[in-house]
Amino acid sequence: MTIPFAWNLITAGYVEQTIPGVIISIIGLLLFGKLLEPLWGTKELSKFVFIVNFSTSMCVFVTAIAVYYVTQQESYLYTPLSGFYGVLSGLLVGIKQLMPEMELNLFVLKIKGKWIPSLIALISVVVSFFMKDLVSYLPVILFGIYMSWIYLRYFQKRLETGLKGDPSEEFSFSSFFPAILRPVLDPIATIFHRLLCGRSDRADRGQTLETSSLPGSDSTEANRRRERGQRALEQRLAEKLAAVKSTERNRTICRTVQ
After folding, report:
1. Whole-angstrom Cα distance, residue 116 to residue 99?
2. Average pLDDT for 199-215
3. Is 207 exposed, middle or buried (CB count within 10 Å of its CB: 0-12, 13-18, 19+)?
4. 103: which strand partners?
5. Which domain holds residue 66?
6. Which of 42, 94, 179, 239 is most deeply buried (CB count within 10 A of its CB)?
């Protein structure tokens, strides 16, 4: 139905097909948005959601058509594909970028932020082999992770320097995989990087020479982002603790008066 109703590429990401999906999307947006909004700002967060949602929908749409032509199975054309999971996965990539060492509680496990997107992708792939009903969510999640990484890696404008992207090694494509696979992935990633971003690299190098940036500035910028993320998180925790203490103090006063 996306042809000719092209606006489906925008609206599909905001439509959930199940009540649990609605609940998960709302809770995920509230939790992850609270972590990223103080660092990015409301405008940038909204821009990120729109870009990741639209680009993910485009990739899923093209993939469905390509798989149909390969397999000749019409189910790939008519299976409803929608949901906010692509954006939620993308927000996890933002947490990986800004707060990689922050530990998040997943049930009984404590996982560092830098491994959450990879873990979600792995779980999604494994579960899809056993639960066929969830296969339709797999491309949304995987493309959400990848398209958000592309945006943050190459296109998001850094307010501090005026440059685009995050070229630090800690946010490279191979950083999503175990270290044993990186020697194999890095050369492949470098080829696609040069094909897709060679022109922007030359522009960035020219701008770097004009502004006389020091070597290692990319790593320094990445560290600054992480420090800001950590400070924002600590400030938010301190405010919550102060609010709890204030509530307890008020209750004690009321009891004393009574």
Report:
1. 11
2. 44
3. middle
4. 112
5. 8-257
6. 94
**Cα–Cα distance, 253 to 258 (Å, whole number):** 9
Residues 26-82: tens digit of each pLDDT: 999 998 999 899 888 899 999 999 999 999 999 999 999 999 999 888 888 888 888
Q: For residue 109, what are the β-bridge partners? A: 106
Contact 139, 60 (CB under 8 A): yes
Whether residue 98 contacts residue 229, with contact meaning beta carbons closer than 8 Å, is answered with yes
Please write the tens of the pLDDT for every residue from 88-108: 999 999 999 988 888 777 656
Structural domain contains residue 32: yes
Please choose, from the candidates 178, 181, 145, 149, the residue with its C-alpha nearest in 3D space to the C-alpha of residue 166: 149
Q: Is the model more confident about 196 or about 181? A: 181
Amino acid at 154: Y
Q: How many helices (H) and strands (E) does the chain have?
A: 9, 2
Rounded Cα distance, 45 and 175, in Å: 23
Say if residues 183 and 176 touch (Cβ distance below 8 Å): no
Total domain count for the chain? 1
Instruction: Give the number of other CB atoms < 10 A from CB of residue 98.
Output: 25
221 part of a folded domain: yes
Q: Structure tokens of 255?
A: 């009891």
233 burial (CB, 10 Å; 0-12 / 13-18 / 19+) is middle
